[in-house]
Write a structure and sequence with these properties.
mainly alpha
């Protein structure tokens, strides 16, 4: 059975981030990841509005970010399947990112965002 993308295919306005990206965290094979990514890009193009290129960049960045909220194994799998990475922490390594390292990586972003 293929991955369910009906929530993305049928959306005519923005859905929650959890609805958009949460389902992707359970995907465990390249075929389903490709199907899900294509549906996600079409959704972003439709409600964005966005070009296909910008929608794909947004989808991959958001998938990488969302995976950062999950366990290390899930993050690695999602990054591999969707060819993405966390926009602040970068690619998942062999060892999980420590809280101190995550804080240090986010500090420059926080300073730019918050002045």
């Amino acid at each position: 059975m293929s991955v369910d993308t009906s929530h993305l295919d049928e959306a005519t306005e923005a859905i929650t981030l959890g609805d958009a990206y949460g389902s992707a965290m359970d995907i465990d094979n390249a075929v389903d990841a490709g199907i899900y990514l294509r549906a996600l890009v079409r959704y972003i193009e439709r409600v964005g509005p966005a070009t296909q290129t910008s929608a794909e960049i947004q989808a991959r960045g958001s998938l990488g970010y969302w995976a950062g909220y999950y366990d290390h194994e899930t993050r690695q799998r999602v990054e591999e399947l969707f060819n993405c990475e966390h926009p602040v922490l970068g690619k998942a390594r062999d060892e999980p990112v420590s809280a101190n390292a995550a804080f240090a990586a986010a500090q420059p972003v926080s300073e730019v965002t918050n002045g």
